[in-house]
Prior knowledge:
Elements (H helix, E strand, L loop, with lengths): L1 H28 L4 H38 L7 H7 L4 E4 L5 E4 L1 H6 L16 H13 L3 E7 L5 E9 L2 H7 L9 E7 L1 H36 L6 H33 L8 E3 H11 L1 H6 L3 E5 L6 E3 L2 H18 L5 E11 L2 E10 L21 H6 L6 H11 L3 E7 L3 E9 L8
Parallel strand pairs: 7-9
Antiparallel strand pairs: 1-2, 1-5, 3-4, 4-5, 6-8, 9-10, 10-12, 11-12
Helix pairs in contact: 1-2, 7-8, 8-13, 9-11, 11-13
Amino acid sequence: MLATATDRIRRRALLLVVAAIVGGICALLAGVSAWLFALGACLALGLAALIGLDDDGGAFARDGEHHGRFGEAEPVGGWRAVLDAVPDPILALDEAGTIIHVNPAARELHVNARVGGQPSLLTRDPEFLQAIDEVIDDGRQRTVEVQERVPIDRRVRITLTALAETFEDEAATDAGSPPRVIMALHDLTEQDRLGRMRVDFVANASHELRTPLASLVGFIETLQGRASSDPAAQQRFLGIMSQQAARMSRLVEDLLSLSRVEMREHLPPRTAIDLNETVAAAIQALEPVARASEATLTFIPCEGPAIVLGETDEIVQVVQNLVQNGLKYGRPGGTVEVAVRRIRQGPSMRLAVAVRDKGPGIAPDHLPRLTERFYRVNAKSSREKGGTGLGLAIVKHIANRHRGELRIESELGKGSIFTFVIDEQARRPSD
């Protein structure tokens, strides 16, 4: 900016000097005396100098004004804008302990938090309120954990940090009171829920394995003792032992399958497959199971190619888990129908694999929990029929990996419909 103004001044002065010299030469040729030429040249040079000083001062004044306007003014928002950009819930308190700022994340976490209010609006926990007073008094950081019961059960860790006095002096230039304490909130509710889920999972898995294992140990001891010379008892016990061993094997396989799906759940499949072909192959493999159950399997494909991005083995597992449930819990000698159809959801088309049975149906209060690990509507019946309690949990995680969803509908006395929904692709990438 400064260099540009100086160059402009020099160009104007140079033009005046050149004009004075040219005018002087013309005057000499016209017969004007030399001393008049010298006087005119001096006047021209003086005028150039005056113009240069005026423009120079004006340029510097404009540059100074520009610098003052853009270089020294406090940006609108200041520290408040910084706190608003933080993704975690943050509140600022002044010297009196009054809330002077609430960032968007904090407003979402605590609807009662508002500027001008007191921290007691968040919680009346005595330890929390005392920590605020202590931080304001001695400036030492403190962390407290608050367990809330209303409106929901939630545990929150609150970190209170006092700001240095130098920052308060700088922040005082902004509108309103300067911040004295920054209060950061960390919601631990989800962490606690996941911890409980891990504990429950280990307990349930241990229980599911302990029962058949205890049965095996008992039968082995019996065969080694009283039944060692009883061939009929040996055959009966060996058959039960084989069933218990198969049950443990299914449980371990389902646990490993669930673990594999969860590990890759964040990686959506990229392979284009035909859903009609994949579902038909899965159903064909279950024909012997259907005949053994004296049930009928029917398949209704959708018209034309049904292209999706998916992993064939996982789609087959989804179909087989849902169909096996229909065969196990449907009416004896009944029909399990599998249909692939197109549905419109918003502007896009999706493909749905619906498995319908005509069993006794499921009560509405059980539906939200069916995809939980080891959850069973009837635990005794499920174990008798070889269920592990993990089949629908595996289906849910496979659906999540395919960026799809599992829908469950059921009506007592009429049967159930389990639907796996996934986005349709216009065509194979290779087409």
